[in-house]
Amino acid sequence: MSAEDRFYRSVVDALTHDRLTLPTLPEVALRISDMSRREDVSVNLLAAEIAKDPAMAVRLLRVANSAIAQAGGRRIDNLAQAVTRLGLQMTRLLVTGLAVEHLFVSKSPWLQQRLRRSWTRSTEVAALAQVLAKNCTVLKPEIAMLAGLVHEIGVLPILRLAESQAELSESPAALDSVLRRLSARVGRLVLQAWNFPEALIDVPYYQEDIYRTHTGPADYLDVVIVAVLQLQGAHDPSLARIDRHAVSAFTRVDLSPDLSVLELADYLAEYDANRSGLAA
């Protein structure tokens, strides 16, 4: 039996018997999540709790100011203003999304490289998803950003399982194959465990279904699919073979399949600002 088959079976077995260890949210995300759901919580209390994690506070301000700068509004210089502007639920979701980066680490050099590559892709997709949602849809840009941040979250538990199987470090193609076959299913489980809203839970599950169709306006999955295809040069080269004219997400996002949005100066500036805001 090949290394790929052995690993695939081990992941499926763990899933079947509910033994796959799902990642636990970092402490800051758990604290903010719990506090934001309290009836007596105030903006100032939530801001004070976020301030206990200086790195998170800085990043949340960056994200809030990125959106405001794009809208031509006044710059925010304190967390209370950021929480007020974003709202309690959006603040909770963004803190969760930003905290996820702390899960993409490993003591194993080969695995750390994989995890960082996945996180970098996620931030790129998140940055562009926000731009597309803001300029091409009526969706909430910050939720679109979060959808991008977690669209590959299913790789985490699988890579954690791979950490104990050294032979996979010599078989990157085998690991890639297992990730393609199972990460979507695992991603949905992770977001369900984290109590994410229904609008986002299906993003990891269907994000590789490029030709997905549905009735009605664009949803967050449409925005993620278009963002991934727009960034194809930095991601999977096989996406270059996709017939974009057959991808209905472009129609719902109201974007020409032939247009490269990052060639538009305004869109590129917004994308770069978002990436800066998501940087550690």
UniProtKB/TrEMBL annotation:
Domain of life of the source: Bacteria
Presence of the UniProt keyword Transferase in the record: yes
InterPro entries linked to this entry: HDOD, RNase_Y/CdgJ
UniProt keyword list: Kinase, Transferase
SUPFAM superfamilies: HD-domain/PDEase-like (SSF109604)
Annotated ranges, domain HDOD: 22-210
Gene Ontology terms, MF aspect: kinase activity
Keyword Chaperone: no
The protein, known as: Histidine kinase
Organism: Solimonas fluminis
